[in-house]
Design a protein that fits this description.
single chain; 391 residues; alpha/beta; 7-stranded mixed β-sheet; binds guanosine-5'-diphosphate-alpha-D-mannose; binds manganese (II) ion
């Protein structure tokens, strides 16, 4: 029977939750051809091994094991892309999401009981009429509501819970948006709505958000920073790339580091000026590299040997950037520009140079393969008939 529904479940150290979750899914999805796609980011508590074993035992359980990667959104996207089911649900592994809603959500997507063609996306909302937040702390609830308001600004969609991690969509919607998703952070639903080329037909069902079954939450403060970056990217990213903004912020911090070290080395411990300047520059560049690797390019983070190569190429890029900066500033100055302007423009050109070169070479983006889409002439698959069974 062709698979009708895929349930994509991101996991990071959820070993105690997998079996109870599968038992519940078995119960509520009986009669539906479904599969579970677990996307595991190299858990250290035995989740991966457990998933491997279950996937061996059961045809409808798969494990997508990612190594050296993380991020809830990208895990969900890769899980969704790995299935060919016409309907795809995303839910957490920790049993906070009420699995009994799944059959109803599927019926809504398929248009059963509705006029017309059915919906594109059905969201289980913690804020729709009839929902509840369970034991959410009031601080967390307030935070959620602020996030929701900001998100509405970005998507324009009438989602009551754009931050929900529990929803179901049609495969076509994924195909339409997959290439424009930002994939950063943990707000996959928000990303989908903000990236869709057309308004999506939306349905909502109320969710009673439950207690986590076992294990601990993975969403920390860094995740909040990522959320802010995603929002900013969707709001003004087309005008000023947010990556560039982060790069400049890191650069400004680097200037502060540089000046403090220079003061310390030159004035404090009495090094010669050139030596002090050299040491301050080297340290500031290294700090900049580290911070950019940590934040600006956290999705392309370099590790191990690639970290060292990246650092070397960053030194070279910045050294050339400094020469360009000096050249521009000097020519403007001799042309009669006031010194602060000449200095600022030199530094700006240098920063743009550093950003361009380092994002092309140091943190090079993996190159996407060209997309070939045959339209009508896809070869048909003819099942082979065994010999001797005439028709
Ligand atoms: N593969 C993978 N990689 N899975 C992850 C990662 C990751 O980097 N981070 C978290 N997960 C998995 C967890 O194992 C869990 O199954 C699910 O994603 C949700 O993580 P939790 O740590 O339980 O998140 P939460 O309960 O604090 O947040 C939930 O509520 C938010 C709304 O406040 C999630 O549903 C969020 O998506 C939702 O926005
Ligand atoms: Mn949770």
């Amino acid at each position: 029977m062709p698979v009708e529904l895929a349930v994509v479940i991101p996991t990071l150290n959820e070993v105690g939750n997998i079996v109870p979750l599968l038992q519940r899914l078995d119960r509520v999805l009986a009669g539906i051809a479904w599969e579970a796609v677990f996307v595991d980011d190299d858990s250290t508590d035995g989740t991966t091994e457990l998933l491997r074993r279950l996937a061996q035992e059961r045809a409808n359980v798969r494990c997508l094991h990612r190594i050296g990667r993380s991020g809830l959104s990208s895990a969900c996207i890769e899980g969704m892309l790995s299935t060919s089911a016409p309907h795809i649900a995303v839910m957490d592994a920790d049993l906070q999401h009420d699995e009994t809603l799944l059959p109803g959500m599927l019926a809504m997507l398929k248009g059963e009981g509705l006029k017309g063609e059915g919906l594109d996306v059905v969201v289980a909302s913690r804020f729709a009429e009839g929902s509840s937040l369970g034991s959410f702390s009031s601080a967390r609830e307030r935070l959620s509501r602020v996030g929701i308001r900001l998100s509405r600004l970005v998507t324009g969609a009438r989602l009551t819970d754009p931050l929900s991690g529990f929803f179901m969509l049609k495969r076509d919607v994924l195909e339409e948006t997959a290439r424009t998703l930002s994939g950063q952070g943990f707000k996959i639903l928000l990303d989908l709505f903000a990236s869709a080329p057309r308004p999506l037909r939306l349905g909502e069902v109320p969710l009673h958000f439950r207690q986590r079954h076992s294990g601990t939450s993975k969403l920390d403060t860094l995740v909040m920073l990522e959320f802010a970056i995603l929002l900013a990217d969707k709001l003004v990213g087309r005008v000023i790339p947010i990556r560039f903004v982060l790069f400049v912020l890191v650069g400004l911090f680097g200037v502060a580091v540089h000046l403090s070290l220079l003061a310390l080395a030159y004035r404090g411990i009495g090094m010669g000026f050139l030596g002090a300047q050299f040491a301050a520059t080297a340290v500031a560049m290294t700090v900049n590299f580290y911070l950019n690797n940590q934040f600006t390019y956290r999705d392309r983070r370099l590790k191990g040997r690639r970290f060292l190569w990246g650092l070397a190429s960053f030194y070279v890029a910045c050294a050339i950037g400094a020469v360009v900066n000096l050249q521009v500033a000097e020519s403007l100055f001799t042309l009669g520009a006031p010194w602060p302007l000449a200095g600022l423009l030199g530094a700006t050109v240098g920063a743009v140079w550093n950003f361009g070169v380092s994002s092309t070479f140091t943190w090079a983006k993996p190159r996407p393969r060209p997309v070939v889409r045959p339209d009508a002439d896809v070869p048909r698959f003819e099942p082979v008939r065994p010999h001797g069974t005439g028709d």
